[in-house]
Amino acid sequence: MTKVLLIGEGAREHALASTLINYQVYAISSFINPGIKDIVEKSKGKYFIGDINSPDFVKKVISEVNPDFSVIGPEDPLFNGVSDVFYNEGIPVVGPSKNDAQIEKSKAWMRELMWKYNIPGRLRFKTFSNLEDAAKFILDYGGSVAIKPSEQVGGKGVKVVADLQAYLSQDKRKALSKSVDEIGSLVSDEVKIIIEERVDGPEYTLHVLTDGYSYLPLPLAQDYKHAYQDGIGPETGGMGSISGPGKLLPFINEEEYERSLDIVKLTSKAIEDETRVSYKGFISGQMMLTELWGPTIIEYYSRMGDPETASIVPRINNDFGEILQFAAEGKLSKAKLEVKDNLVSVVRAIAPYGYPLDKSIAKGQRFYIDLEKIREKGCILYFGSVELNEGQIISKGSRALELVALASSFNEATKRLDQCMGFISSDRKMVYRTDIGNTIDEMKEKAEIVRYSYKNREKKDLLGVSADWSPNGGLW
């Protein structure tokens, strides 16, 4: 039987593991994920516990397992060069090299690349190593901006100010400038802060799998990042997601999908030109439909998103594990993707009390789950940041579970999730959102307004043109 080595420990990796049932599954995690453990044991593989970010540890596991191919789930192993171990050993792997993974790790590098290669959907930006200069720029500049840490820090630290009411702008700018030190403290790179022009519109994610030659786009998904109901509270890694119907979302049309794919493919080719290494694995565009460009890049992932994976994988009809193997082996042209076109999915992430503000409180809480009843009601459960400890499911401090429902409508899927929630409990109050998938009409309306604006710009050859930012990516 073909042996696959899966790296990672969250709900994304549990979802990916569920597609590998025709393989002998070996896995590396830093703790025992109950869902991954079950799949490993059923396949008669082996579960290794250790540092998933250590190339040396991964190399030791490789020497014991001798896998036929590997799938790397999270971004941190990519940033630490774990994929390069497989490339050096001649083992096929789904995951870009460390250099190519810069497209996610460094927002500054990503923005510079898009401007250097004239890729559509790019935003104007400035980078700052000196936090005082960044704070001064925010106070002096009159337009709407978003400030971000220059490197990937797990979805933390993004702040936005919009100049919709001029009499509030100075107070808002003072508040935002005070956030610079907080955001800068998250970053270890010399470049601390990136300030971008602010854009608005419905967000979506396009995941594209590539072997360096062929490209396989997956169905769109939308991620709900804010912690609390109705999109308020701090940003998280994602409190839920939706996908469908078909390969689109109700507020993104076929032309916008194809434009998004073109942007991602152009970026992949630019990375290869820049690093001299073919991009292999997932390159995923976190996008927004804006009046400036239409499809616009907010950031890139060098892997599948979480919880987007949980909304996409259950909608795939054929053997996605085989598709992953084709991608790893450079045979992606053989792959055909079959999607459950008539079904949509809704994912609800469930976190322990204390998340996301105090993960020390959120750690160590027990979860009680009736998995059989959940399945009887037609839901799927992926285990995230929970550890199997002496038969008990214990929270690790982050998003613990991802509950998925497929149905013919988003409303029906949400009702199914509500029913399945009755079979999940914890020592303390759980943190989750019940509005995931309930904003479709709002997104449709927003998209129509944006679409009218960017189409008018396109007719006048003004896509991407912004009055107060220079064509080379910065201020005049």
Automatic annotation (TrEMBL):
PROSITE patterns xref list: ATP_GRASP
Keyword Amino-acid biosynthesis attributed: no
Family the UniProt entry places it in: Belongs to the GARS family.
Molecular function in Gene Ontology: ATP binding; metal ion binding; phosphoribosylamine-glycine ligase activity
Organism: Acidianus manzaensis
Keywords: ATP-binding, Ligase, Nucleotide-binding, Purine biosynthesis
Coiled coil: none
Pfam families noted in UniProt: GARS_A (PF01071), GARS_C (PF02843), GARS_N (PF02844)
Entry protein name: phosphoribosylamine--glycine ligase
Domain ATP-grasp: 111-329
Enzyme Commission (EC) number: 6.3.4.13
